[in-house]
């Protein structure tokens, strides 16, 4: 670990990655946190344990956890079409009426990852047919969760996750208390990214948190807390093999499956090692989370740089021993 710390000190000192927050868990109980570099171009103060980063897509496992709780409570039917719960989301698309919460959680909805000019909001294949990473579908799931509970997603997260786990520096919405200590994102050559301050939660990407806070969630996951044993097992049962493709999206079905990586109900899975993962990609921010259910080791890191995922080649071997096929699947380059 000393060699890794020296590397991270060097990477942040040179400005390759301005700032980094990293937390590790050993054997389920030994938690440590390490902070490196600065908060950003807006504030050159050192990153510390309270510096809030944009987590990006690691928002999804947290939302998935709450969705599974609602399913256990009989409020959210995982196999019930979302349109039956909260109305249409995709206009003039008959296949979209078949999309369920289960399709969203397993990225088999057929909807695009991000709605854009070359990928408008529509189904590109029948729901359940195959994997294609689809962030856009989580907005529909969010609407369904809010409909059945009559609560905002932020309220659900605060009551079901943040407060019970002591995640005091976490929110799905921008909070005034984050003004004094937050990270700013930077693109590949260090260009600062204007800070977004959302006043409405987004189920696929809006989590603001610290590495130690998110590690508390991961520790709870490893302890199988908050769900029945049946639902917990279902959470981590491979539901579909992922497919290769840019940003894990394969709308046209032209890419081959990846035999070493699967997807459960909200987490990426490496079944041969009983491990789970998720990565995050917001403008100027990158995040990575890995946990091993057998060894009970885990790591979380947040970087305020587009280069942040490239730390995987150095961080993972030192923190969560074993093979990490997700790195190859995501085509993560080296620093």
UniProtKB/TrEMBL annotation:
Keyword Transmembrane helix on entry: no
Record-linked Pfam families: Beta-lactamase
Keywords: Hydrolase
Entry annotated with the keyword Nucleotidyltransferase: no
Signal peptide residue numbers: none
Highest taxon of the lineage: Bacteria
InterPro entries cross-referenced by the UniProt entry: Beta-lactam-related, Beta-lactam/transpept-like, Diverse_Enzym_Activities
Beta-lactamase-related domain residues: 5-308
An example Gene Ontology molecular-function term: hydrolase activity
Protein name (record): Serine hydrolase
């Amino acid at each position: 670990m000393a060699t890794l710390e020296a590397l991270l000190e060097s990477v942040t000192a040179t400005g390759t990655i301005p700032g980094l927050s990293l937390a590790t868990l050993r054997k389920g109980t030994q938690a440590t946190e390490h902070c490196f570099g600065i908060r950003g171009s807006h504030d050159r103060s050192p990153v510390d344990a309270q510096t809030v980063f944009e987590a990006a897509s690691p928002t999804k496992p947290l939302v998935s956890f709450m969705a599974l709780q609602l399913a256990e409570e009989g409020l959210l039917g995982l196999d019930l079409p979302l349109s039956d719960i909260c109305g249409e989301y995709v206009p003039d698309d008959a296949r979209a009426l078949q999309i369920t919460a289960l399709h969203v959680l397993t990225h088999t909805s057929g909807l695009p990852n991000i709605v854009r000019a070359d990928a408008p909001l529509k189904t590109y294949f029948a729901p359940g047919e195959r994997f294609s990473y689809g962030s856009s579908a989580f907005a529909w799931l969010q609407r369904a969760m809010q409909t059945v509970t009559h609560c905002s997603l932020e309220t659900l997260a605060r009551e079901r996750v943040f407060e019970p786990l002591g995640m005091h520096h976490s929110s799905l919405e921008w909070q005034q208390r984050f003004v004094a200590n937050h990270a700013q994102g930077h693109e590949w050559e260090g260009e600062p990214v204007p800070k977004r301050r959302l006043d409405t939660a987004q189920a696929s990407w809006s989590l603001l948190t610290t590495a130690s806070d998110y590690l508390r969630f991961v520790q709870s996951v490893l302890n199988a807390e908050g769900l029945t044993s049946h639902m917990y097992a279902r959470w981590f049962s491979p539901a579909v093999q992922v497919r290769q493709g840019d940003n894990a999206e394969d709308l046209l079905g032209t890419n081959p499956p990846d035999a070493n990586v699967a997807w459960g109900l909200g987490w990426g899975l490496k079944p041969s090692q009983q491990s789970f993962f998720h990565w995050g990609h917001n403008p100027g921010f990158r995040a990575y989370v890995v946990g091993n259910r057998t060894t009970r080791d885990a790591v979380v890191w947040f970087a305020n740089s587009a280069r942040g995922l490239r730390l995987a080649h150095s961080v993972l071997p030192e923190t969560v021993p074993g093979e990490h096929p997700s790195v190859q699947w995501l085509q993560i380059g080296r620093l």
